[in-house]
Amino acid sequence: MAAAPGPGRPVTNFTLPGGVLEKVTDGDDTFVRREYRLDERRGHPLVLAFYPGDDTSVCTKQLCSYSSGLETFTELGAEVWGISPQDVDSHEAFARKYGLRIPLLADTDRTVARAFGIAAPGIGLRRAVFLIAPDGTLHWKHVALLGATFQPVDTLARELAGLRA
């Protein structure tokens, strides 16, 4: 398993396909697909939430929590990207089922998970959260040993607020 980037160290750029569910004023929500590049968020904090699978118990609770806490992240100037090994079609179904409002990115070959040191045999990847500072360095991380729990919005907000101090 590769070593995860350490705090204060630059995070290597990556590009992944993904999409986000957006409200449409008159009609059904639209799932907007595009490529997401880490460097497009330069100048703003970013939360990378790696999760093992769409529509699984803990992952659903985690992503619903982050989606419903979106205003907290936005107030801190941050965006949250969920990343898992499923494809974009799976992400769209997951986002629609639960009304998720955060971008969901597809790391189907686990290249990004390996770069962050969280690829795991059998489960694909470990549940982990990385906070990227506006300058593109790693500010904070949490990698779960078992993945049965996740970092709450309040913890992430506290760490993000530390970027402003």
From TrEMBL:
<keyword id="KW-0560">Oxidoreductase</keyword>
<keyword id="KW-0575">Peroxidase</keyword>
<keyword id="KW-0676">Redox-active center</keyword>
<dbReference type="InterPro" id="IPR000866">
    <property type="entry name" value="AhpC/TSA"/>
</dbReference>
<comment type="similarity">
    <text>Belongs to the peroxiredoxin family. BCP/PrxQ subfamily.</text>
</comment>
<dbReference type="InterPro" id="IPR036249">
    <property type="entry name" value="Thioredoxin-like_sf"/>
</dbReference>
<keyword id="KW-1015">Disulfide bond</keyword>
<feature type="domain" description="Thioredoxin">
    <location>
        <begin position="5"/>
        <end position="165"/>
    </location>
</feature>
<dbReference type="InterPro" id="IPR050924">
    <property type="entry name" value="Peroxiredoxin_BCP/PrxQ"/>
</dbReference>
<dbReference type="Pfam" id="PF00578">
    <property type="entry name" value="AhpC-TSA"/>
</dbReference>
<keyword id="KW-0049">Antioxidant</keyword>
<protein>
    <recommendedName>
        <fullName>thioredoxin-dependent peroxiredoxin</fullName>
        <ecNumber>1.11.1.24</ecNumber>
    </recommendedName>
</protein>
<comment type="function">
    <text>Thiol-specific peroxidase that catalyzes the reduction of hydrogen peroxide and organic hydroperoxides to water and alcohols, respectively. Plays a role in cell protection against oxidative stress by detoxifying peroxides and as sensor of hydrogen peroxide-mediated signaling events.</text>
</comment>
<dbReference type="InterPro" id="IPR013766">
    <property type="entry name" value="Thioredoxin_domain"/>
</dbReference>
